[in-house]
Amino acid sequence: MLFLWLYHHGFLQFGLTPVAKLPPAPALTLNLRTIYAPIFEVNLHLRNLVESESSEGSKETLAESDQHSEKSELTEEAEASEYEDLCDPDTEFTTEFGNRNIYDELSECHTDFFIDPNRLEFSRKIQNMLANIEKCITTITPLCQDDRLSIFIDLPPIISSSNDTESQTKPKKTTWPDCQLLFEMDPDYQNKIVSLLTIIGNSMGLVNDYSCMFIEYSTMIEKAMIISTKLPSIGELTAEQFKIILNKLRNYLKHMVNMVIEKRVGIFKVVSLDYQSKCLPYVDTSIHVSHTLLESEIQRKNTNLLAIIESSLQQLKYNPIEIEEFVEHFVFLDTISSKISMLEKEYLTISQLYSVVRNYQIHISEQQIAMFEVLFFKFSQLKTSVKLYETNKDAAMTKFRDNLEAYVIGLRVAVNNLKSEIRTPVLLCIGTQVTTAQEMIRTLSEEAASLSVKAQLCSSFQDRFDESHFQMHSLSMEEITRIVFAEICDIEYDLSLRRMLWETREEWGSLYQEWKSCSLQTVDVESIQRNVLKWLDTIPVLEKGLPANDVLTNLKQSVIEFKQKLPVIVALGNSHLKPRHWEALQEITGNSISFYKGRTIEDLLNLKMLHYEHEIKEISTSATNEAALEKLLLKIIHLWNTTPLHLVLHHTEKDSILIISSVDDILAQLEDSQVSLATIRVSPYIGPIKDLVNEWTKNLTIFSYTIEEWMTCQRNWLYVEPIFNCLEIQRQLPEEAKLFSQVISTWKEITSKLQNKLNALQIIILARVPDILKTCNTHLECIKKSLEDYLEMKRSIFPRFYFLSNAELLDVLAGSRNPESVQPHLMKCFENVKQLVICKQEIGPPVVRALVSAEDECLVLPEKIHIRSAVEQWLVNVEKNMFEAMKKFINQGINDWHCQTFSPWVVSHLGQVVLTVSQIIFYDDCIKSFTSSQSREALENVHAGVLGHLEEAAELLDTSNAQTRAVLGALLILYVHCRDVVRNLLLQDTCKQDDFEWTRHLQYKWDEKQMLCYVSQGGASFTYGYEYLGCTPRLAITPLTDRCWLTFLGALHLNLGGCACGPAGVGKTETIKDLAKALGKHYVTFSCFENLDYKIVGKFLFGVVQSGAWCCFDEFNQINVEVLSVLASQILTIKSAKASYSVRFVLEGKEIRINMSCAIFVTISPGYPGREELPHNLKSLFRPVAMMVPYYRMITEIIMSSVGFKSSKLLSGKLVNLYELASTQLSQKDHYHFGLRFLKTVLIIAERKKQEFNRLASWLVASRLLMTAGVVCAIELHGEWKVICWPLSHCVQLTSMLQLTTTELMFLREYLLSHMFTFPNSLATVTLMHNSKSDTATPESESAASERGNWKCTESVLVGVTPLLITVPIPESVTEEWHYWYYWYCSSDTSEADETRIIIEAVREASLSKFSPEDIPLFEMIIRDIFPGVTTAKVDLPALEVPATSPFPAPGSQCASVSTRVAFLKHVQSHVGSTLPVV
């Protein structure tokens, strides 16, 4: 019933055309394509995509097109392959149009189609239809509710009381059945609705699939539109290209005509008639455009070619008469003969275009067809005419030759006639008028120019035609034209001479009359001289080229006469002549003649002034020179009257004061002015301005002196000003502060007068500024003297202040109330103290608790030093406490040696204590072995002990921090020396303590009674200095080092100094410095230079003598001989005071105390330029040591051993051999120095790379351990470790299979705290806690461990030496892998190949950047020879970090967002109270 109603009502309302009746409901599951006729009709329409953007229906169609079924996709692919040529414009037009891609230049014009109605509209209408059906059904009244049947269905009335009478009379209404409820609850109805919608949806999908077949027609339309739109603008096309376009367009038209118009698809009939009707006009338009373009192309080519042919035919018919016409005619014939092939090609192109018209039956006008026939006829006629010309060419040339002969003969006759006219006597006669002569010359010049043009025309014929056609009598055309040209040149030359003659005569006459009427004041002397010289140069030329004539003779005589009078005219016309010069002229020539500037030249010529020529010239010269000097002087005066002093503001702490920023410009100006005045003063013409010159010379001298005093005052003031801004300095020097205030006020007065004033020089002279500045300088010198005495007083209390400059010391003193002000200068006052640990107290002054070295090692002082006095006084207490602390810790280190094992003892004491005590113990062991009954066996035991200590120290290197590594490196160097000493004693069988083989080495002795350490070598013995040295490295001790130390200590024993002599870079200064470290002394290096002042050196010696420090004058022989003489006297005085054991002595006129431990050393490098020979009296005060060639291999081996290289013996030899070969094989450049410094650089780089390699190895092992354990992140909180782990299925306690030692824990700690991994959202927390009672740790409770993200802090403290245990989740399957990786880390050593690669990389990094490009390949070859078979490939970190199958994130992976990480760190910091700990 539903479907019958649908058939009768639904379609007409929806606008759909019913075609056949629906089948019964049970038959809906059958194949609707084959059994039943279609029900609905849909249409395909064409549209523009631009118009469809706002249409919802088009969007639905496009969305459905993107969701085709697999079947439709296969159909599209088949259709695309079928029309591949059609849809690929790039291939078509690139191959057919000669690599000209039309579609690269054209913008696409998109077209598309749509279905009417589309799927969305159809679905909406079906739904509305079903709703209307249900609504219509609900309007039908059920039978049970029909009033007419109520008597059959209502119950009989029941008798009741009167109260219910009203209710009984009303019929009871019922609402059953509820149709809406029936529709929703009826399964059969709902299934039918679903079946109906399914059938319609499937059928609509088939329609969409079928519509995809029409995409090819849209593509054709797009291509046709492109052709019709852009084809006219592409350019000229060939016939072949037109064929391709027309074939393509007609193929498109054929496809569209054969388009399927109607087809059954499911329950739909798809009609595409409208789509076809709208597609066809696009192709028709393109075909029409192609036809139009072809017709216009044919018309254009026809018109152009026909015009060319007709023009050529007209010229061929012309019969030349004149010579010029013959030439033009012959040129045209040659041109048309060469162009005939091109015209044939153009004609062939037009013929091909006409063939396209005929083949494709394109309609063109009758006029175009007739034009092509005319073109064919005219072109044939042209070719015939050209062939006829070739046949008659000789006859035409003969006619042309006859005409040319007559033309040339007439030209020669005309030339001879013109030459005769030019040489007429009229042009050289003095009686001829100038205008007449010039008119005759102009007429003759025009005739000569006309003949020249004709001769050039004849000459051009020779270039155009063959010479064989132009033989005339016995002369050729070339000879004839040469003759004509020569005659014309002669004519032009004669004319130019005659023109020059008359022009010169005319110019002379006019200018001479003009000059005679000029006065001396207005005459242009330079113009007169220039013109006279010009005429004197012109007259000889005219005399040489013209015959003798009266005109030239008269002109020459007049010019020469005027030239003789010219010097007098020039002298009297001098503009610099003043009244005094005119008076002098009048005295010379007599009172009868008066001179003044108003006289004319004619008057002077009439006065016959040639007799006084010499006197007049002298006076004129004097006037010129005097004017020049006066002009120069006035320029100087004007310059200084407008020269200001450029003052700028200098900002101080309290005020801003004007100063001169730079005087370079004004000094340069002053120097130039003084030189100019000196030049003026020596001139013999200074007379009139002598007084003014002397006055300004004096002014500039005063100004120069003022500038000198000014800069001295300003320099001293700027030096003193920041000092007296300090209240402490003002309190210490009140008189000087008051005097400085007076200088400041005076300075301000001076600068206020000169600020923004242009005449600074005049102000300085009038205000007597030089005297004021001199007084200020005197005051400043007094202030500086008092300040120097004040600083000297401070230095005498704390002598180490001598090693600070005045500015640095003043900085310390100015901040004496702030103890922190001394911190930046500690490194110059102490050997290796970077910082003082100053603690502030609630009550009382701050105290100094400890000293911190540059390596961050801390020396705790035994007593608190209260900072309540002057800075120099409490620094003296710091120095004393430093000595006491070192004594205490060395004594403690000796005591701990006997109760601790070696490794803990090394890491628990100060670095200096470790080095010193180890040498004391070594000395004691050796002495005990010497006194033993079996001394050799005891000495062998000492040797074995030293080797054991070496191995233990080397093992500690890999697991220590930077500070401990520095201590261990120095300790290894000393133990290597101890090993060599014991080995030599055993080899030489030396077992006596007084044997020289033993005493020649440095020995450390401990005095139990005095609690002092003594250092001895040979016969010299010294008390250990106890200067705190920190963890500084030590030099490798070689036999040369031993000899050097032995000599120096012997010299010190005799109160002499040491002199290390040798080339640069052998370690002279460093050897002395290491000896100072060995004796615990403060060591200061003084770098010498030329022009060194003896006062500076004297002040430095004051500090050395009073503080007891050791000093070394590096490059001592650079100092001048005069200063060396003074130094010899000073050093001799110090030696005498030490020899007499004086407590105080006089040095440089000042009595000072002496510290007997002071020592003076020098280094010299002979043979270098600029070096002086030491005086003999100075040489006698030093013991010399020659240090020429260091033990390179031994030094390299020791240093490499000290930084952890296991193959140091082998690699050191190769490294030394490498640079020995490089020094001989590479080019000899000035900057190539392969000495000890260069080798040290390579070793430093190798040490750094070795540490990086070790860190890389530990990183890889830690990464593997953590990945297998599941650890993602770990931090340390108040001594408790928080390890964040992945929640795995089960956990195993690591403690049950592996006990974690200190090495294991420190290894994990260094990695975990330096590499923070990202973490997931859900994490488990496991705590590593300290347990001092047992070897295992108690894990957290399960409840605590399962609590996610809750951080729990305990009060337990992490102790590095106590074993800690860890409980982490780890799969049982990876326990063996854990064991493997951990024991690999603990037992593996760097292989020899790895160390070799490290050395090669260090060598390249240190060397290659310094080599020239041509030396690098040779150096690489040397490396390959020294280290054969070794490559330096870099480790591929990403490949080694995490296995590909690992479930854990690699370092740096982005599993957590930035906000998550930030929140995590903030959460941790809120519990910690500070930043995370840093390793």
Task: Name some characteristics of this structure.
1479 residues; 8% strand; disordered N terminus
Question: Could you please describe the fold and organization of this structure?
Answer:
The radius of gyration is 59 Å and the shape is flat. Strands 16-17-20-15-21 form a 5-stranded parallel sheet, covered by helices on one side. Strands 2-1-4-3 form a 4-stranded mixed sheet. The protein is built from 53 helices and 24 strands. By secondary structure, the protein is an alpha+beta fold. Residues 1-35, 49-111, 158-173, 467-475, 1268-1388 and 1433-1479 have low confidence and may be disordered. The longest helix has 45 residues, at 273-317. A hairpin with a 4-residue loop joins β7 and β8. Helix content is 60%, strand content 8%. The chain starts with a helix and ends in a 7-residue tail after the last helix.
Architecture blueprint of SSEs:
Blueprint: H1 2-14, E1 40-48, H2 49-52, H3 56-66, H4 70-82, H5 84-87, H6 89-96, E2 111-116, H7 119-138, H8 150-153, H9 165-169, H10 179-185, H11 187-211, H12 215-230, H13 239-257, E3 262-265, E4 268-271, H14 273-317, H15 323-359, H16 366-391, H17 393-422, H18 434-464, E5 471-472, E6 475-476, H19 477-516, H20 525-545, H21 550-572, H22 579-589, H23 601-606, H24 613-641, E7 647-651, E8 656-660, H25 664-681, H26 690-724, H27 727-732, H28 734-754, H29 760-766, H30 769-797, H31 806-814, H32 826-829, E9 835-839, E10 847-852, E11 858-866, H33 871-897, H34 902-907, H35 911-931, H36 935-957, H37 962-987, H38 996-999, E12 1003-1007, E13 1012-1017, E14 1020-1023, H39 1039-1053, E15 1057-1061, H40 1068-1078, E16 1083-1087, H41 1094-1107, E17 1110-1114, H42 1121-1139, E18 1144-1147, E19 1150-1153, E20 1159-1164, H43 1176-1179, E21 1182-1186, H44 1192-1202, H45 1208-1225, H46 1236-1269, E22 1271-1277, E23 1280-1285, H47 1302-1314, E24 1324-1328, H48 1342-1346, H49 1375-1387, H50 1392-1407, H51 1416-1426, H52 1437-1441, H53 1458-1472
Parallel strand pairs: 1-4, 15-20, 15-21, 16-17, 17-20
Antiparallel strand pairs: 1-2, 3-4, 5-6, 7-8, 9-10, 10-11, 12-13, 13-14, 18-19, 22-23, 23-24
Helix pairs in contact: 1-7, 12-13, 12-14, 13-14, 14-15, 14-16, 15-16, 17-18, 17-19, 18-19, 19-20, 20-21, 21-24, 22-24, 24-25, 25-26, 26-28, 26-29, 26-30, 28-30, 33-35, 35-36, 35-37, 36-37, 37-44, 41-42, 44-45, 44-46, 45-51, 46-47, 46-49, 46-50
